[in-house]
Amino acid sequence: MTPSFDDFVAEQVTPLLRYATVLTCDPHLAQDVVQEVLLRAQQKWDRIGAVDLPHAYVKRMVTNEYLSWRRRRAAKDVALCMTTLESVTPPVGDTTHHYDEREAMLQRIAKLPRKQRAAIVLRYYENYEDSEIAQMLGCAEGTVRSHISRALATLRMDHTPEPAGVGLRLGEGLS
Amino acid sequence: MNDTEQLVKDALGKLAERTPHPGPTLNALRRKRKRPRNVFLISVAGMAAVAVLIFAGVIASDRYTPPSGNDAAAALIPGNGQSVALKYAPHWLPTGYVENFRLVDREVHRVWVPEGAKGFPFTDGGPQIALIAGGDQPEGVDWQDTTVRGLKAKIALRDQTAELVWHAQDLLKVSVRGFPDARQVALQVAESVRADSKVVHRAAFKLDGRYADHTWGSKPADWEAMSIWKNQVSVHVGTLPPQLVGDTKPVVVRGREGLRTEKGVAVFDGSVWIWATAESNTDLVVEAVNKVELVPSPDTSWIGKGL
Questions:
Q1: Where is the composition biased (Basic and acidic residues) (chain B) (predicted)?
Q2: Interface of A with B in 104-143 (CB under 8 A)
């Protein structure tokens, strides 16, 4: 039976926002992306609700929306800093020494080209296989492996974190 | 999985903890939901509109209407008065807050107060949240820097009122009064503000070509709209009878029997009261009430509603 759009939204809005937050590294952009996608999904719900896994379909819409959104806004500054993130939801207390490493890693992830970033998120946050990532990104599995390999190489490079409160310029490549 | 991969996984997990609350997104969805469109009807309506415009253009092309004195003032009001795009809406407010006041002038004010607040809660010093679009940059030295959605902003706390100003497409201000944590509430409201072209305001009456710029009330059937006319007469239309001060005598106004006091006049016109007051005894009050043009179906559905 096709779930109603309202039931779908009630159940999936938080997972979608969580995915979009990780994908965009920006809670505000995540809200905008999810909102835009759900508005479009509502218009086509007769069709989307009838597919086997509506949430997977909408998640792919979120990915595509993010990729095209980034393309439209590639030349713009996007504030990405812990201040911005914490203004939406205060961070959970973290007293471990991993905190700075994770924060530095987040900033490096945020600088990755968009498809590399999406591939990293799908692999290490969503635990997708190469074939699933390829389907999600609309590319070959070899391309997925290339994206992840290049991204990991970039992330391994020694990097000094930027001070908190400084917006990062995310005019990343469009490849 | 090597160290880098584990660190990537940990970092992404940490980022996921910052997922925003779904409330603003759900509220925005509720407001912006697009209804299925009847393409055929839209096409027919579109063709009809084009035909009318062409016809009107042919008729009007050789006419010239000189600008009236009101045009300049009306041009300052977004949307030209009757149907004004409020342009911005918050998608988060503290529980139980409802909208009860709008001012549409060069600035657009929207005010929310606790549900059930009596009297004039937007002026009595009690708790309220206001969103103001337009206006001037803040001045003074007690403003502190902050950010709203990554944009530079300034915030000041005075007498338990927090004022937060930032520049989106317009200058926006959130004012929060009567909260122990007014600063935090102001930041949270501001973070939820989104541009929303579908939120419009329709004034309740027109006088000398200008639509009423103030509207307030406690529920859709209990409202009042007001404008100042000629800088000296306060003109009102509302659902509740006005409180007249001083001796009254009958007077004919708008072709009906009304009541005249020394400084004011009031008449019940069908379904609403219309009245005007001035600082001194002047017949301008009668002239103003006679000139009021009522809008057939004023939109008061927003009064007393939350998000």
A1: 9-20
A2: 105-106, 109, 120-121, 124-125
Mutate which of B3, B6, B8 to disrupt the A interface (most A C-beta within 10 Å)? B8
Q: What is the CATH code of the structural domain delimited by B83-200?
A: 2.60.120
Does B98 or B1 have the greater pLDDT score? Answer: B98
Contact B11 A120 (CB under 8 A): no
- Nearest-angstrom CA–CA distance, A156 and A131: 25
- H helices of chain A, where? 5-24, 27-43, 45-48, 54-72, 82-88, 98-110, 114-124, 130-137, 141-156
Please say whether the beta carbons of A21 and A11 come within 8 A: no
- A34 phi/psi in degrees, rounded to 5: -65, -40
pLDDT band at B168 (very low <50, low <70, confident <90, very high): confident
Residue B90 in contact with partner chain A when CB distance is under 8 A: no
Residue from the list B9, B17, B191 with its beta carbon closest to the beta carbon of A124: B9
Rounded Cα gap, residues A153 and A157, in angstroms: 7
Question: What is the residue extent of each domain of chain A?
Answer: 5-72, 92-156
The per-residue pLDDT for range A26-83, each reduced to its tens digit, is 888 888 899 989 998 988 888 888 888 888 899 999 998 888 875 544 333 333 334 4
- Among A107, A62, A112, A64, which residue's Cα sits nearest to residue A82? A107
Class at the top of the CATH hierarchy for domain A92-156: mainly alpha
CB-CB neighbours of A115 under 10 Å? 24
- The answer, for B8 touching chain A at a CB cutoff of 8 Å, is yes
Q: Give the integer Cα–Cα distance in Å for B110 and A25.
A: 32
Nearest CA in chain A to B151: A79
Residue A79 structure tokens: 């504030």
Residue B150 contacts A where some CB pair is shorter than 8 Å: yes
- Does this complex have an ipTM over 0.90? no
